[in-house]
């Protein structure tokens, strides 16, 4: 059986928290931006984690039982080694756990400690004469636990297991990306034997096996992309190939999708010295049209930033509504072309069932030439937008996952604070880092709610940013250095508020709807990356 042996114990004799030690070593900013560390899905699908705590030896056996593109199910069994004998201490059955951050409460979280596995307290009392002394000690200790104690211990086991998985994933990320700056902190770290753990009976392949950009996609030809992976494909191509040109032509571009592509523009334009063009059908007849279906003011602001700061060339097609979806990335010898149904939007990248096809073609290939001819003809009939007037665009947000016409005006009854008023409040804050983080949330178009939170005393004075499209709410504070809290709301906002009503701040992580909480981060780029993950 593959084994991950944790080295050492904590200063107080409890189990060593290697993820916390890793955070101290490399810093929160590095880990918050790491794909590997923010991935719960294990590199090794079945293994035993071996560790010591308070003089007891533990063996946590985990096994992935099911998986799809977004979630996986896992069984975790923790054993104690006591008086040279193994005892099953706790069993967790978890279904539909997100593969990556954000953490969302799984559809099934089943907990059984030793005694409950054996059939209940009555069974234990009737059969106690058949147990050995050692077994009776284990069972009696188990029965001292209340259901809440068992639940809290189960959460610790799950968190420690995921922390080990995340640490392993991060170190493997360094292994396959030797040029990363944080690699120098470890001086060529060995994933098999390092300061955190050692691996036994495990073979780590030398070949890079990225989430999307693997050997299969390196090959020339045509590839049908998996559901909701177009953004990851684009990102990994840009990470692995020097791309000098990216041209996109879509019907709709929304700020929720554009922010997820920001790193791509930075890499191509700022690092590689390349160029980017963007054709948007929804800008038809700009600036003459009276309104622009599908382009809200937040999106307009973001497009203007791309034009001003990154020199992205913005184009519109006026003869009719352009509705195609075309992505073109040019390397030195190879071009990567995606055609399909995905607009640049959070819904297209994350929720909708889209159909996208990737073509990997040598630049001299005749099919590549035909794609180039098609794009040149399109842009020849387009008009470049030199100046962008934000005032021509209205404030509204996308609603219920529809990309095109389903718009909701900001004056909706649910919107307690208009965007302009919220921005005015933020602009008058004295802490620039708090200003930046709050505006980063606003870029995703939340409904903004402010009240006294009498129903949630622990969050009195906080403001809610409600993201209906993502079934998520963020409790934010306008006070510097306060934490923010992120929760899912699959059963609605009222149900969430009801559950949080009796909780203290330090208890909120135990809510079934808890996703994450954030601390003060000074690096603005890390703030953007951390927030963007909630909308991936």
Question: How are the elements arranged and paired?
Answer:
Layout: E1 3-6, H1 18-26, H2 28-32, E2 46-53, E3 56-67, E4 71-82, E5 85-98, E6 108-113, H3 114-117, H4 121-127, H5 133-143, H6 147-176, H7 183-186, E7 197-200, H8 215-218, E8 221-224, H9 230-240, E9 245-250, H10 255-258, H11 262-271, E10 275-280, H12 297-310, E11 313-316, E12 326-330, E13 334-340, H13 346-350, E14 356-362, H14 366-380, E15 383-384, E16 396-398, E17 407-409, H15 419-427, H16 432-442, E18 447-450, E19 463-467, E20 472-476, E21 484-488, H17 493-500, E22 514-518, H18 524-533
Parallel strand pairs: 1-2, 9-10, 10-11
Antiparallel strand pairs: 1-7, 2-3, 3-4, 4-5, 5-6, 8-14, 9-12, 11-15, 12-13, 13-14, 16-17, 18-19, 19-20, 20-21, 21-22
Helix pairs in contact: 9-11, 15-16, 16-18
């Amino acid at each position: 059986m593959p084994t991950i042996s944790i080295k050492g114990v904590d200063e107080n004799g409890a189990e060593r928290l290697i993820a916390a030690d890793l955070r101290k070593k490399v810093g929160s900013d590095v880990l918050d931006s790491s794909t590997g560390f923010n991935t719960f899905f294990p590199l090794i699908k079945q293994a035993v984690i071996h560790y010591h705590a308070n003089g007891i030896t533990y063996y946590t056996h985990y096994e992935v039982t099911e998986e799809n593109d977004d979630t996986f199910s896992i069984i975790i069994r923790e054993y104690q080694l006591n008086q040279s004998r193994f005892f099953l201490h706790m069993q967790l059955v978890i279904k539909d756990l997100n593969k990556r951050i954000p953490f969302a409460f799984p559809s099934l979280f089943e907990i059984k400690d030793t005694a409950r596995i054996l059939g209940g307290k009555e069974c234990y009392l009737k059969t106690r004469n058949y147990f050995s002394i050692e077994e009776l000690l284990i069972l009696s200790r188990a029965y001292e636990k209340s259901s809440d104690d068992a639940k809290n211990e189960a959460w610790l086991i799950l968190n420690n297991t995921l922390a080990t998985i995340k640490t392993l994933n991060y170190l493997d990320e360094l292994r396959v990306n030797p040029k990363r700056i944080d690699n120098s902190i470890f001086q060529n770290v060995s994933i098999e034997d390092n300061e955190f753990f050692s691996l036994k009976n495990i073979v780590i392949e030398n070949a890079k096996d990225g989430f999307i950009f693997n050997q299969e996609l390196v090959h020339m030809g045509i590839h049908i992309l998996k559901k909701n992976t177009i953004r990851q494909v684009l990102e990994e191509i840009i990470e692995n190939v020097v791309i000098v040109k990216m041209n996109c032509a879509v019907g709709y571009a929304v700020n929720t999708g554009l922010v997820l592509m920001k790193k791509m523009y930075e890499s191509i334009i700022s690092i590689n010295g390349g160029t980017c063009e963007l054709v948007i059908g929804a800008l038809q007849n700009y600036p003459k049209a009276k309104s622009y279906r599908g382009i809200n003011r937040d999106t307009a602001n973001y497009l203007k930033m791309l034009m001003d700061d990154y020199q992205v060339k913005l184009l519109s097609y006026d003869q009719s509504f352009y509705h195609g979806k075309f992505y073109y990335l040019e390397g030195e010898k190879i071009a990567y072309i995606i055609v399909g149904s995905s607009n640049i939007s959070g819904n297209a990248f994350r929720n909708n069932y889209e159909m996208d096809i990737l073509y990997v073609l040598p630049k001299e290939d005749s099919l590549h030439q035909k794609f180039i001819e098609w794009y040149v003809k399109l842009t020849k009939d387009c008009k470049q937008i030199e100046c962008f007037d934000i005032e021509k665009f209205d404030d509204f947000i996308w609603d219920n996952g529809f990309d095109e016409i389903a718009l909701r005006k900001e004056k909706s009854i649910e919107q307690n604070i208009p965007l302009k008023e919220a921005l005015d409040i933020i602009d008058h804050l004295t802490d620039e880092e708090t200003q930046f983080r709050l505006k980063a949330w606003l870029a995703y178009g939340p409904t903004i709610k402010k009240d006294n939170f009498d129903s949630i005393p622990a969050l009195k004075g906080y403001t809610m940013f409600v993201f209906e499209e993502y079934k998520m709410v963020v409790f934010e504070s306008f006070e510097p250095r306060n934490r923010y809290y992120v929760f899912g709301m699959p059963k609605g906002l009222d149900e969430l508020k009801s559950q949080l009503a009796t909780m203290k701040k330090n208890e909120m992580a135990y809510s079934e709807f808890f996703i994450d909480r954030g601390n003060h981060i000074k690096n603005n780029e890390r703030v953007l990356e951390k927030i963007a993950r909630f909308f991936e």
